Amino acid sequence: MENLSVARLFEDQRQELQLEPLTESLASRREITVSDIHRPGMALMGFVENFLPERIQILAQTELTYLATLDPAGVRGAIDRLFQFEMPLIVVCKGLEVPPYLISRANECQVPVLRTPQSTTPFIHSMTSYLDYMFAPTATVHGSLVDVYGCGLLFTGRSAIGKSETALDLVERGHRLVADDVVTVTRRHGDLLIATGNQLLRHHMEIRGLGIIDVQAIFGIRSIRLQKRVEVEVNLTEWSDEGDYERVGLDERKTNYLGVDIPLVQVPITPGKNITVIAEVIALNYLVKVTGGYSPAERLNQHLIEIMKRKSAAKAWVREDTE
Predict the structure, then answer these.
(1) The dihedral sign for the CA sequence 181, 187, 188, 191
(2) What is the pLDDT of residues 1-58, one digit of tens each?
(3) How confident is the model at residue 146 (pLDDT cuts 50, 70, 90)?
(4) Continuous H helices in 147-295
(5) Nearest C-alpha neighbor of 205 from the set 176, 164, 174
(6) DSSP 3-state assignment of 198?
(7) Is the distance from CB of 234 to CB of 255 less than 8 angstroms?
(8) Strand partners, 260
């Protein structure tokens, strides 16, 4: 989302943040475009060089107490200084009363003012979290996402290769379906990829030859979850004699979503291969690497190198002894 209207914010967060409008309208000349919050205390005092008008402005105990120390002319001057900028929204915390002149100027300048009974710091945390979610970069992926032993496996591949069937088999074995067919991936908190399913499809799956099934209705509430971190992509491909498939695992492949690299495991499909068990091992192997810092391929490689060094040293010792 590139911009967010105040009316949309009010509709989404009215109950959670206990918002009430103080101005006549929620229409704003400037929409919300950033997730950062600003407190305009210095601007009210006259220092406006570093004022950030594109942000939501928070008025709390400090700002309103300062205004209460001014005479009526000083109050008008401080508020006029604030409204020389085009702001998207002003929020008053702790349910505090605001000067009537501020509401009057807000109506004139078409800057909505909302009030909440919540304390300032918790409110800022909640508002920032909501804005981070709304402005987070998002991508749509054709695939299936399953929570396998706590690891988010994203199954990709051409249409009808068996992504949904693999996901269904994993659910039957006790794992949890997050999304099928349409996976919405969002970048959150830096390098964290969080994925959800399509709101319309929910936890329905299309199984060719069977049709649409409701996973929650069949397997119960424990078979699904609403969102999950994407940690490994499992790309299903047809077997090819000319394919370059990983045999050892020393060179870990990567794929990129929204600027974040995650491991990529390419699994060739052949008749009789148990893809479900392989998927479980992929998840467990990833968890072993992440939680224990242990790589089986690297450990085996180091072990073989040590054996070769010992044998080489033994041969050199034998040659020196015979000489």
Answers:
(1) positive
(2) 678 999 999 999 999 999 999 999 999 999 999 999 999 999 999 999 989 999 999 9
(3) very high
(4) 163-172, 215-219, 275-292
(5) 164
(6) coil
(7) no
(8) 257
* Residues 6 or more apart in contact with residue 1 via CB below 8 angstroms: 134, 135
Cα distances (angstroms) measured from residue 194 to each of 40, 165, 179? 34, 23, 12
- Token pair belonging to 18: 């206990």
Give dist(CA 138, CA 307) in Å, integer. 49
In the chain, which ranges are continuous DSSP H helix? 6-13, 41-45, 61-68, 72-82, 100-109, 120-135, 163-172, 215-219, 275-292, 296-322
Instruction: Give which of 295, 230, 292 is closest to 260, Cα–Cα.
Output: 230
Please compute Rg for the chain using Cα positions.
Answer: 29
Q: How far apart are CA 145 and CA 163, in angstroms?
A: 9
Q: CA-CA distance, 73 to 127, in Å (whole number)?
A: 33
Helix residue ranges per DSSP H, 136-178: 163-172
The torsion angles phi and psi of 166, rounded to 5 degrees, stand at -65, -45
Distance of CA 94 to the CA centre of its chain: 30
CA angle, 286 then 289 then 293, to 5°: 165
Backbone angles phi, psi at 212, to 5 degrees: -85, 130
C-alpha span between 31 and 135 (Å, rounded) = 13
Nearest to 92 by CA among 67, 59, 120: 59
How many whole angstroms separate alpha carbon 257 and alpha carbon 133?
17
* Long-range pairs of 300-309 with CB within 8 A, sequence gap ≥ 24: 301/248, 301/250
**Winning range, highest mean pLDDT, from 49-58, 198-207, 244-253:** 49-58
Q: How many residues are recorded in the chain? A: 323
Global confidence as pTM: 0.73
* Statement: residue 306 has pLDDT above 80: no
Residue 260: what residue type?
A: V
**Where in the sequence numbering do the catalytic residues fall?**
142, 163, 181, 247
From residue 232, alpha-carbon distances to 16, 144, 220, 284 in Å are: 34, 12, 26, 11
